[in-house]
Amino acid sequence: MIHLTQYSMMQYLALFISAFGAATLLPLQSEAVLFSFLALKQQPAVVLLLVATVGNVLGSCVNWWLGIKIEQFKHKKWFPVSQQHMQKAQTIYHRYGFYSLLLSWVPIIGDPITLIAGVLKENFYRFLLMVTIAKAGRYLCIYLLYLGVM
Predict the structure, then answer these.
(1) Pick from 115, 60, 124, 107: nearest CA to 85
(2) In what residue span(s) does the VTT domain sit (predicted)?
């Protein structure tokens, strides 16, 4: 049974926020936060992994949603991505399809992949499944590294 104290809730919240933010286009990392909370051994590892995964997946969902909404602004001068770069990213996504979402955990390229999935109107449930597999797998690997298994 999990006993929630104010301190444990703050840990979970900090982990959730770092994982959520790391999945968006913000330059944040959640791995160090997760690793440090695992090292403290104050919270069950399975709950920490779940909180990190949920936060990270929800952050990717924000990218998907932004991708759907951002295309309406692509002809504006201030739009941050050139039409040429958008076309290139879309071509790559079309070539590998939704399987490219399995790389959504990879630093630098993962966040744009989730954004492009939204631009290309990827089915949300398929998006959610693939991103959840990728993100949960990454956090499981971090846990295995922590345990010294990998």
Answers:
(1) 115
(2) 37-143
User: Is residue 116 a contact partner of residue 65, using CB atoms and an 8 Å limit?
Assistant: no
In angstroms, the CA 108 to CA 87 distance is 19
- Report the distance separating Cα 122 and Cα 37, nearest Å: 34
Query: Please, what is the angle between helix 124-147 and helix 45-70, to 10°?
Result: 140
pLDDT tens digits along 39-74: 999 999 999 999 999 999 999 999 999 899 987 777
Tokens coding 136:
């949960």
pTM, entire model:
0.87
Q: How many CB atoms lie within 10 A of CB 36?
A: 12
97 C-beta neighbours (distance < 10 Å), count = 12
